[in-house]
């Protein structure tokens, strides 16, 4: 009986789940099937181990950059008079470590206070800032991996964006904490606490504040760090999942840490460091997992049974490339809103990772250019009136040929050469000098989109 039930469940997860047409289902069943599919692809991604490796690398980078990061934040917060809030925040973050968390916080604060930024000199200060920026850059690379983004921020954008996080971020966080604390001490709030049922409601909301702050922090990270435009709703969904998992894991890890006294006998003084590294790993892993949730929410077309990236055949690459040039040129010629990777992926029904590779190849060949916005839009890389369609087709067919090491003469055989030349001649005769701009104009006259 159990074996039959297990067999049916297995067949459903690997076959039936992906054959259901969710558009024809009621809303509750549709969300149920969608949730099962998301759960399936998340478990599959976890089994691949890429997130675990990224989390491990971030642990190492954090250990090297944590004190410099806090030193820079400490210097900024000191100018605003809220530098004393760093220690309570660290205590809250490391609360699952119990007494060991208090000891680690004390040592970190001691290191930070011993760093005197004013006596470091220009070279020392530059190295300090570089260490902090390298940490954020490593975090961005991990989030770009989750979002299948290959292009990183430019050097100028790195300094402007990263420094804004380092300088403005801590001030906003501690300001929010201070406002929350002040609100709880307000006379009106205190009067409400003495009235029922308002008192119970206020106390319950007060207990939700840490979770709400963590969710807000996760949401902000998901929106800002990846080098792409992340929708607020998708980032919020990821923040809710990630924040909830972080809180639950914190309670579980606190129970584990409270019974870890036996590890002191095994690892001696290294036990506290090991526990700290484990908690850092879990925190980074949960943060990246929430980013995966946000990614799949924003790109539902990526939720598919097979994990392999969909490859483009030459025929599909040629058709998709011409469609991209057609859409981008039409928007450019008529002053419409530019097409982005996300909108092109939705319009063409193609996976964003594979389409992104095609767009990158088209950029390298000068067919496309992108704006400098955070979510770049594409426009023609050359004058559409001077860009024949047959040249675009030739460029698309030549993708992947750069750096070919063999002698081209080895591929030359007279019968084959004649067939290929006849094909090129037929294309030139049929298409002639038709340009990409001509295609965009034909769409207006024919009324096609």
UniProtKB/TrEMBL annotation:
Q: Where in the cell is it found?
A: Cell membrane
The topology of this chain with respect to the membrane is: Multi-pass membrane protein
* Membrane-spanning segments: 58-80, 115-136, 162-184, 204-224, 236-257, 269-295
Protein keywords: Cell membrane, Membrane, Transmembrane, Transmembrane helix
Main subcellular location of this protein, as a coarse class: membrane
May I have one GO cellular component term? Answer: plasma membrane
A Pfam family that this protein carries is Virul_fac_BrkB
NCBIfam families found in the cross-reference section: yihY_not_rbn
| UniProt-recorded name of the protein | Membrane protein
Q: Which organism is it from?
A: Thiohalomonas denitrificans
């Amino acid at each position: 009986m159990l074996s039959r039930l297990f067999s049916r469940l297995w067949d459903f997860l690997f076959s039936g789940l992906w054959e259901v047409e969710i558009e024809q289902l009621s809303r509750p069943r549709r969300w149920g099937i969608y949730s099962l599919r998301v759960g399936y692809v998340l478990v599959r991604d976890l089994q691949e181990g890429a997130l675990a490796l990224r989390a491990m690398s971030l642990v190492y980078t954090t250990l090297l950059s944590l004190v410099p990061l806090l030193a820079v934040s400490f210097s900024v917060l000191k100018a605003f008079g809220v530098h004393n809030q760093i220690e309570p925040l660290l205590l809250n973050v490391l609360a699952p470590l119990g007494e060991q968390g208090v000891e680690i916080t004390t040592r970190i604060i001691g290191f930070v206070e011993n760093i005197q930024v004013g006596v470091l000199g220009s070279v020392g200060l530059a190295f300090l800032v570089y260490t902090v920026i390298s940490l954020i850059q490593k975090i961005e690379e991990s989030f770009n991996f989750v979002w299948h983004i290959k292009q990183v921020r430019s050097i100028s954008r790195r300094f402007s964006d990263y420094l804004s996080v380092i300088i403005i971020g801590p001030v906003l966080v501690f300001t929010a904490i201070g406002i929350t604390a002040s609100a709880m001490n307000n006379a009106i709030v205190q009067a409400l606490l003495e009235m029922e049922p308002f008192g119970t409601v206020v106390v319950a909301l007060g207990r939700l504040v840490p979770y709400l702050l963590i969710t807000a922090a996760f949401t902000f990270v998901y929106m800002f760090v990846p080098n792409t435009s992340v929708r607020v709703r998708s980032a919020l969904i990821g923040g809710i999942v990630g924040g909830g998992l972080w809180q639950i894991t914190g309670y579980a890890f606190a129970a584990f840490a409270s019974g870890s006294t036996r590890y002191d006998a095994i690892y001696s003084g290294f036990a506290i460091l090991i526990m700290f590294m484990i908690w850092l790993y879990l925190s980074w892993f949960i943060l990246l997992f929430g980013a995966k949730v946000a990614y799949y929410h924003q790109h539902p077309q990526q939720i598919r049974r097979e994990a392999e990236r969909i490859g483009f055949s030459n025929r599909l690459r040629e058709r998709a490339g011409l469609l991209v040039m057609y859409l981008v040129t039409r928007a450019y010629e008529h002053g419409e809103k530019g097409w982005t990777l996300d909108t092109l992926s939705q319009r063409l029904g193609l996976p964003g990772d594979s389409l992104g590779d095609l767009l990158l190849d088209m950029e390298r060949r000068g067919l496309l250019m992108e704006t400098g916005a955070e979510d770049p839009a594409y426009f023609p890389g050359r004058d559409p009136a001077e860009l024949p369609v047959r040249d675009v087709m030739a460029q698309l067919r030549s993708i992947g040929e750069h750096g070919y090491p063999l002698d081209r003469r080895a591929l030359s055989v007279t019968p084959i050469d004649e067939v290929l030349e006849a094909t090129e001649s037929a294309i030139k005769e049929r298409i002639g000098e038709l340009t990409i701009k001509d295609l965009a104009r034909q769409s207006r006259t024919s009324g096609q989109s």
